[in-house]
Amino acid sequence: MSIEVIKLVTNEEIIADITVDEETIGCKDPMLVAVQDGRLVFIPYMQYTSAHKFIQFKKKDVMFIASPVESLVDDYVSATTQIAKPRKSITASVP
Prior knowledge:
This protein is mainly beta and 95 residues long. The chain has one domain (3-80): Roll (SH3 type barrels). 12% of the residues lie in helices and 45% in strands. It contains 1 helix and 6 strands, in the order E-E-E-E-E-E-H. It has one helix at 70-80, and strands at residues 3-8, 13-20, 24-36, 39-44, 54-58, 62-66. Strands 1, 2, 3, 4, 5 and 6 form a 6-stranded antiparallel sheet that branches. The mean pLDDT is 88.
């Protein structure tokens, strides 16, 4: 699994499990990353089509690919599977 964030030339940002070949980038379970009420949310990409499960983009339509922070990956995995990954707890040390 290679979960990455893709910035398209249309300015859309998509998080997906990607595969890359010579001319295209395949995206399994693509989700549009958006800001709503000051929070990041995932919206299934083209949810009204079969593309919500898999879509390919031509490399010329992609500005860049970046690795997401771990918490975003955890949220994406929870949103696209039935498995909820527990968040790491932060404990304060008491003297």
